[in-house]
Amino acid sequence: MTIAAGFPDGLAPGQAGLSRAACAHCGARLAPGQGEFCCTGCSGAHALVRGLGLDAFYRRQETAAGTLRPPEALSTDFAPHARATSPGTMELDLIVSGLTCGACVWLVEQALAAEPDVVKARASLSSRRLTVAWRGEARRANDLASLVARLGFKVAPWSPACLRATEDAEGRALVRALGIAAFGSMNVMLVSIAVWVGTDMEPATRHLMHWLAALIGLPTVLVAGMPFYRSAWEAIRAGRVNMDLAVSIGVLATTLMSLSETFRNGDYTWFDGATSLLALLLAGRVLDRAMRRRARQAVAELLALQEGTVALRLSDGTTRAVPAESVRAGDFLLVAAGERLRLDGVAEEAVTLDTSATTGESVPRILTPGEALAAGAVNMGQPFVMTVTAAAKDGSLAQLARLLERAEQGRGRFVSIADKAARLYVPVVHVIAAATFLGWWLGVGVSWQAALVPAVAALIVTCPCGLAIAVPAVQVAAVGALFRRGVLVASPTALERLAGADHAVLDKTGTLTEGHPELIEDETLDPELLREAAGMARASRHPLAQALVRACPDAPALPGVREIPGRGLVRGSLRLGSPDFCGLGEDQGSGMTLVFCVAGEAPVIFRFADRLRGDAGSAVAELQALGLETELLSGDGAGAVEAAAAAVGIGPWEARATPAGKARRIEALRAAGRHPLMVGDGINDAAALSLAHVSVSPGTGTDLAQAASDIVLRGEGLTALPAAVRVARMAQRLARQNIVFSLVYNVVAVPMAVLGFVTPLIAALVMASSSIIVIVNALRAGKEASA
Amino acid sequence: MNALVFLVPAALVLGLLGLALFLWTLKSRQYDDLDGAASRILFDDDLPRKDKR
Fold this sequence. Notes:
The complex is a heterodimer. Chain A is of the alpha+beta class. Helix content of chain A is about 50%, strand content about 15%.
């Protein structure tokens, strides 16, 4: 939604009709009493933009409200990611999250170009990739990255996964083939139309025309058809039948028949049919691929933002930020408060870890010295030194990733509706074509070349076209519409599988709940005290401090706050920290409280809990209304799970489920003939996600869970899930309609072709009209989704 | 029919020229950022240019 667009900054009208209700930088709604900005970060960003003379940005900005709020601080060291391109020039690739409109691209490029040493800054809106080159040292990378961050964009190093998602050699080959096919079909048509219309043409001229058509058509068919031939060949080798095989046989048979007609100077050649068929199908495939590439890029972007470096402690006691992959077993790592463990290890002291991502427990756990610490947990206590027990490639995360790969291969058995149709269609059509050929040749007694014409006409009129485009067209429309709603469909058959799901298994922590602590609202809390505490909390990255800041986002950061790591914050006589730190005695194990004390006054206690998502209840109710049975499967304790199940209204629940237990439950459901939809976010859900019929993970989920999922929900909340199920079902219905429609077309067209009434002109009309009707029908899938 | 001797090759050469141009645009990665290109055309170029020395 656009709030500030079209208005000078500061004068944007608010939704509630107040004079100044939106932050002048990020457009977030302002709390009463706030000036122009929602936070100090935005105020700084605004000053920066104005200082650079780039305030035209605010008139064109089209970002969603609140997305451009500058992050607190950069935690990654970008210098190792810079690479020297030529002597004295460094280059850095970044992924820039929040880069959603043309004005953002302009702002980022101009702001970087204003730096004196920057020689090139180029951002890509589609892939969110920013390439910046400068003269000087690698260290400048951090300044440049933080400049972009200060404008309000989240930055992360461009990862190999992003590159894989963007660099799409196969997609480029498809576009090239499309270009060649389009050129070929248009030029063949130029000749063909002359033949169609020129009935009084002399035989010699017609022969020339046929040879011209062959000259253009043959290379086109050979080059542009390669993607189909390759896929058909793979199918044959695997002993399967697919739509590409039907397309390949149709196109090649048409070409051979046309060649034979060219040699004997028949009435018509059919090169136009073969080439335009290829062009139409390639256009569909290019669109389909572009749509899926966008989804893959968005997933890679989410993953890149989670990657980071670890602090390696060197023998001289100093620390250095290095990528997690370079750490070996036996190295020492410094784990800061609030940091996520990226490697397995052991600590020599007792540590408090939030293990919600690895086990699903919502309350932090205290681990005794020497106990194994699993990667994925978040340090909720003080910083500690960890001895790494396994390098990244041998650790628990890598083992799980290998398990997932194996499970992924097992899922390849799913047969899509298009392939099902092809299995029926291919043998039937080819038997009809063969029978037509034999009938005319042996039955009627015409020459074999003449008998070839009606046989091939039957092949091309049944037109793999309508059928081959029937399902992809629906997919493109539905996946595109879902993408706009923040549902990323990464797997080609995910929508079909989602439509068939009849049993939803949901995880609790991070899926039904927010997955991070939130302040429990308390009427007795003094808002002024909360504001003051939140202002102090800004100085810390501890998850509870961050939760306090979220509860009161407009609190300005207070100066002079000192952090005593793992214990609390001190500012003069003010103290904010663990109960122990504020003299209230030992915390009773929950680890989910902060105490704020002002000298001489009674201490104020802030309690935190992992809150249910606001729309969890309605999303579950909608799923049930759609006919899905729901169940809750959590690794958390029975009390918390029961409370969540009751609040959300979800059916049977199971607490203390281990990762293996979750996977077993999914397998049991499948064995019982159900089609389970698994929704989960944690490392402990990954195995279950990859075993399920179809799997969904929220955008806040761990990278492993997202990699194991077919669908990722990018936005906050679960409302998009039932909507996705509805769109998937609609898409499935439309795909069936399209297939039925193509078949009906054939019932009329095939007998005409078999009897020899079809000319290339009629074939072209049939092909184009059936494709158009199928595409128009498919567009309804997109309409349904945005309604 | 003599016209065909000129017109057909001319049409083909023009078509091939178009194809070659398309393949060049593809190769020089002009289709990589379609969304960006759509809005880039609206950027103002009248900003104070910095000296790149």
